[in-house]
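Quick one, tokens below:
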């Protein structure tokens, strides 16, 4: 069982009694702005309805005891925080380390989640932000979403050892319901962009997982750095479409194409946020389609499965636009679909994609949800 009730029931079954606090931390999907984050650029993600929940109770000591549905039990002491191979516990230990464990109190907590693991919807960042909010709540600290997102990113980078940008943690911590969020990855400036009520966001998991992604990712980063260096700017963020002709004379053909994606994607992302501001979902959809082509042809991070999914989606009634989302080479695409056509869209795309490929698709219709929050249960003052 998932959701608030599921976490409370699991807490009672595992620890006895009732929890004091329930926390919800959503997953996320990026609508546009791909491979722009490490170029100091712009991204436009939103939090989704699928979320990780934790029901918890503070402890008087410095022990953290946790259970997570389907992932087993873990426990550790804040006085003896060592990096280990405890699987999912490392995400919570990493958070405690990044927050400064000397300031923190112990707690016991039960996690449930309906964010699929490893699908690119950021179950890991949801877990980290849920953990950060739990430590903040039991330790009597004030919740600072941006500061917590930076600590969660540090936990994932330095404790868990996975390199990631700031987008996932930041959107999960700061999202507003019914809005996507334009994030300036250089300044961490946040601008909400409203999503109209008559469109649905449909996440299209191709059922394929990325391979060779680390080496390909490093290769793309290096090409972007090469192009920025050739142009004499700190990052590709500092260039505009007008600079591309000059760049063509200064760098190699591969770096030029990678740069053309990043530069045009930054412009599309800002344009997309403006389109939402005036409710122009049609233009937003066109920008998503252009983003996919640029990722496919110039950045070369799409895959046959992603191209197939996007081609089917854009061919269907009520689809305003679709693109791959996330690092690429597999995983999910995302489509913007008229609400009235969403049910038919889901049925059709599942059927057509299953027939045309050997993979099992998973399709999720979702809306822009609020960011992470904690709620006290009842009035248990001690
Ligand atoms: P994703 O794309 O979903 O973020 P990752 O590989 O980055 O995929 O993170 C998945 C890992 O995060 C899991 O293997 C597990 O260790 C941890 N994780 C995520 N959600 C939970 C949860 N609800 N309970 C326990 N561990 C979780
Ligand atoms: Mg992750």
């Amino acid at each position: 069982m998932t959701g608030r009730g599921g976490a409370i029931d699991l807490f009672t079954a595992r620890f006895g009694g009732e929890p004091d606090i329930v926390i919800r931390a959503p997953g996320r999907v990026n609508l546009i702005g791909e491979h722009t984050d490490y170029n100091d650029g712009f991204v436009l993600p939103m939090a989704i309805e699928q979320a990780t929940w934790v029901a918890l109770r503070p402890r008087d000591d410095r022990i953290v005891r946790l259970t997570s549905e389907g992932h087993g039990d873990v426990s550790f002491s804040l006085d003896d925080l060592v990096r280990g191979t405890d699987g999912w516990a490392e995400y919570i230990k990493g958070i405690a380390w990044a927050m400064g464990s000397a300031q923190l109190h112990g707690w016991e907590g039960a996690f449930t989640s309906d964010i699929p693991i490893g699908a690119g919807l950021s179950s890991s960042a949801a877990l980290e932000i849920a953990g950060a909010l739990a430590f903040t709540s039991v330790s009597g600290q004030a919740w600072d979403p941006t500061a917590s997102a930076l600590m969660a990113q540090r936990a994932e980078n330095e404790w868990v050892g996975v390199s990631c940008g700031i987008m996932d943690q930041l959107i999960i911590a700061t999202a507003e319901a019914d809005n996507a969020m334009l994030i300036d990855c250089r300044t961490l400036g946040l601008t909400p962009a409203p999503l109209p009520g008559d469109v649905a966001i449909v996440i299209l998991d191709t059922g394929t997982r990325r391979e060779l992604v680390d080496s390909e990712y490093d290769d793309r980063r290096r090409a972007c750095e090469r192009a920025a260096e050739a142009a004499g700017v700190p990052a590709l963020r500092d260039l505009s479409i007008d600079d591309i002709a000059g760049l063509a004379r200064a760098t190699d053909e591969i770096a030029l194409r990678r740069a053309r994606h990043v530069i045009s994607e930054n412009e599309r992302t800002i344009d997309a946020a403006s389109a939402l501001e005036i409710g122009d979902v049609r233009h937003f959809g066109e920008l998503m389609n252009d983003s996919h082509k640029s990722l496919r042809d110039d950045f070369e991070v799409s895959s046959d499965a992603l191209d197939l999914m996007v081609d089917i989606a854009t061919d269907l009634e009520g689809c305003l636009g679709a693109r791959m989302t996330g690092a690429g080479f597999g995983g999910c695409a995302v489509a913007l679909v008229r609400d009235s056509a969403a049910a038919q869209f889901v049925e059709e795309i599942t059927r057509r994609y299953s027939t045309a490929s050997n993979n099992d698709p998973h399709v999720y219709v979702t809306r822009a949800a609020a960011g992470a929050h904690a709620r006290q249960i009842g009035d248990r003052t001690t």
